[in-house]
Amino acid sequence: MSAQNTILFALLWPLLGAVGIALAGRWPNLRETVTLVTASVLALSVWSLAPGIMDGGRPGVVVAEVFGGLSIAFSVEPLGMLFAALASTLWIVNSVYSIGYMRGNNEKHQTRFYVCFAIAIAAALGVAFADNLLTLFLCYEILTLSTYPLVSHKGDAATIRSARIYLGILLGTSIGLLLPAIIWTYTVAGTLTFTPGGILEGNLAGPAVGLLLGLYVFGIGKAAVMPVHKWLPSAMVAPTPVSALLHAVAVVKAGVFTVTKVIIYIFGVEALFAEPSGGWLVYAAAFTIIAASVVALRQQNLKRMLAYSTIGQLSYVIMAAAVLTPLSEVGAAVHIVAHAFGKITLFFSAGAIYVASKKTELPQLHGIGRRMPWTMAAFTIAALSMIGVPPTGGFVSKWFILAGAFQTDNYLAIFTIILSTVLNAAYFLPVIFAAWFSTEPAGGKDHGEAPWPAVLALCVTAMATLAFFFFNQPVLELESQLVGRLK
Amino acid sequence: MSLTAQLPALQVVVPLLTAPLVVLLRTPGLSWAAATAASLTAFAIAVALAGQVLAGEVIHYEMGGWPAPFGISLNIDALGSLVLLLVTGASTLALVGGRDSLATEIEAGRRHLFYAAWLIVLAGLSGIAVTGDAFNVFVFMEISSLATYVLIAAGPDRRALTATFKYLIMGTIGATFYLIGVGMVYMMTGTLNFADMEVRLAEVTELRPIVVAAGFITVGLALKAAMFPLHVWLPGAYTHAPHMVTAFVAACSTKVAIYVLLRFDFFVFQNNLSQHDLHFASFLLPLALLGILVGSAVAMVESNLKRLLAHSSVAQIGYILLGASLISEAGITAAAAHMFNHALAKGAMFLAVAAFALRLSGVRLNDIAGVGRQMPLTFAALAVAGASLVGIPGTAGFVSKWLLLQAAFAQGTLGLVAVVVVVLSSLAAVVYVWRIIEAAYFCEPSAEVQAAREAPLPILAVLLLAAAANIYFGLVPAFPLSLAEMSATELLGGLQ
């Protein structure tokens, strides 16, 4: 298959899978087989694009000319390649986990769950491969809408209230801020195609650049920069596999990915660096990192704590991108991967704990390490990665972000990372300590590990977290193409 | 003369002559079939005419062979052809799908009269879009209005009578204003033909009667178009009319008035009154913006589905007028495209309401709670049309909203105000569309809703067709856009 066809295949295949899942809905085993086959084939086809991209190829395909020279078009560049590979690969693991979780919990509407999941993955790939902002916006909105049924899965009044916040913020910011930003860009630049070096240089200058950047950053609500982060804790009412893949990887990473892509390919790193009015973004990201960590420190619910941790970690990527040095841009890309492995493991663990014991609050987790050793071992590794302790993946990305910050002597960024590391340790370490060394409260339910597919999945992602510390060379090579060279 | 050359006349003649035939047929089934066939024929004619317009032909037809300006001439320009498509398309969809719905609302003994009135509305609205004669517009306007009052009042809901009365009074004022304006222009120029009027006005330009005439005509048509604050007749009329009448009328009747408004102001007055474009814009723009804000705000708190959509229409008419009042190629393209796209979205939504009404006792948000699970296809179509109304990408509504925002951005500072207003109103649209979706899908169904089944096939089929059109024209908008662009070029031709 040519690269062009592979791109189209990767976008359509999950949708076909969704149809297959819907048709097989009456036979759960067949349905799950369809999901797994779809996910595996998808990951293989996405990976098959990688060598070409490594060699510098940028395959692209135009699907339709819409109006006024705008088109629905897709193309693959290093950042999108990375995001697509990540989302599609973790979909396999997540599907294995979902089988354990959804069956272990006797959830209703499982067919709807798997169908919407497949559509969301297709939309995430669309975001990853979008060749221009119009295409990206289209896929971005499909991603929002297709995840709504997943968030409101439980269907009770409280869930619907949370899901309404989720949809309201994501749709509201995208229509209210992102769309005007895109149209403004089109009005001044005459194009929306992602172009290395940016398209705005010479077309827009002065405070307008800062304002446009603001419209983008807050319009892309999925990046969860404060104050548009509220949807993410709300989304935690979803079943855990949704929180794990969508609200630690696909959806939120679509947000920071879009911000990074806008900075690199719309504003242009060097052009934005030369424009002082864009400088506020580092402060906004730094504030989000610290504030989210402080809030996480005060949470009693495990999933909510993880959600606030995610908000902070997402702003690492934003800040890294906003530091605007070659090394930090690579750091942003690497952190997308490193955080994905770690956070999905943490959510998998939280879900496994829930399935096995129905426990959701932090004080309930005392001594749980002895009942669920595999789960908690994985949890520990992933938490260390969040803090950035070697030998975990989180260390690698922090290294690059710090190195990038030193390149321009950006002490704010350096200070933020150090402070946030301390805070991360402050909210993760007590949980880990209590899980392994405290005694279990009396009168609890007698339980062991969660169903084996769930445990298998979380062990795999924990291993990946470790492995990424040692085998990160391909990712670095791929992403160094983003900035031409590593200074 | 070949048949093709007669199409502009047939556009009006077919429904007009079928109307008495329908009265004679008497039985509900036969009269429905005849009316539907006439409407379908009219739609086919409109499509053929649109094809000719797109091919670049200038369609000019002289009634009875009398040359203009002595006889009545029919002219079909790009915008007229777009409006014809809306009028005939909405009528056809509503008739094809509406048989069951109308059977529950109109007594069997009076149904043939109802269909006859429907065809007269169709003939009148089409007539306005094809004619090149200002007085002829008035005649067709009265024909369609009187028949529309009959349609709206025909339902079982007695509140429709007061709503119709309100509409009748205001509609008559609007038509009278228009007639006064046309009379004054006739007094000064001695002609009623649009093209001739434009030429002759040059001799008497800037005289007070012409300025007054422009004022009367603009206000009269704005009333017919339900421009804020002259829209008060609209919510009641849309709410209490039989559901299918709402679907038909809401999709096209106000747009016909906007069409005449644009035609008069851009073709006839533009070159003959100094700074007319400035006056036109400064009159229309603030009212359009207010209409957008007020209509959206009210729609957010309405609980009757039809009333909610009616207030949303007030806001959407504001979008169209906003695009027109920017007086730029991009703005008018956006306005024309939005006429088309809004008709698609709103028509589909009212069709869905009609489908719900067939199965449920009411169409308040409480009444439709949970119906989405019982009527999944109807609900899906409603959701797609709602997305189009909000302007979600991939739907038709997105295309025109994009064009409108782009046109507003190009206007500089003032345009930014418009951008902010449109964005606020889009957010309001998210809220009110979401209230419908949430009520229909996520609320607990009542016993009545539990027993509801999917709507009958004809209405379901046209509903899904309308929803599919919302997506199709969102992804492949070339056809309405080229008509819209041609309209903009034609309308701005007078603006050197």
TrEMBL record, chain A:
Q: Name one GO cellular component term.
A: plasma membrane
Q: Which InterPro entries match?
A: CPA3_Na-H_Antiporter_D (IPR050586), ND/Mrp_TM (IPR001750)
Name the domain of life. Answer: Bacteria
Q: What sequence ranges are listed for the domain NADH:quinone oxidoreductase/Mrp antiporter transmembrane?
A: 130-423
> Which positions carry the signal peptide feature in this UniProt record?
none
Chief location: membrane
List residues traversing the bilayer: 34-53, 82-101, 113-129, 135-151, 163-184, 204-225, 245-268, 280-298, 305-324, 336-356, 377-401, 413-438, 450-471
Q: Where in the cell is it found?
A: Cell membrane; Membrane
The membrane topology term of the UniProt record is: Multi-pass membrane protein
Q: Which family does it belong to?
A: Belongs to the CPA3 antiporters (TC 2.A.63) subunit D family.
Protein's name in the database: Cation:proton antiporter
Q: Which organism is it from?
A: Parahalioglobus pacificus
UniProtKB/TrEMBL annotation, chain B:
- Keywords noted in UniProt: Cell membrane, Membrane, Transmembrane, Transmembrane helix
User: Which GO terms of type biological process are on file?
Assistant: ATP synthesis coupled electron transport
Residue ranges occupied by any NADH:quinone oxidoreductase/Mrp antiporter transmembrane domain in the UniProt entry:
133-422
Record's bilayer topology term: Multi-pass membrane protein
Task: Look up keyword ATP-binding and say if it applies.
Answer: no
Query: What Gene Ontology molecular function terms does this protein carry?
Result: NADH dehydrogenase (ubiquinone) activity
Q: Record's Gene Ontology CC terms?
A: plasma membrane
Please give the coiled-coil regions recorded for this protein: none
Q: InterPro entries from the xrefs?
A: CPA3_Na-H_Antiporter_D, NADH_UbQ_OxRdtase, ND/Mrp_TM
UniProt key word Transmembrane:
yes
Transmembrane stretches, start-end:
6-25, 32-54, 74-97, 113-131, 137-155, 167-189, 209-232, 244-262, 282-301, 339-358, 379-400, 412-434, 455-475
Q: Subcellular location, in the record's words?
A: Cell membrane; Membrane
* Family listed: Belongs to the CPA3 antiporters (TC 2.A.63) subunit D family.
Listed name of the protein: Cation:proton antiporter
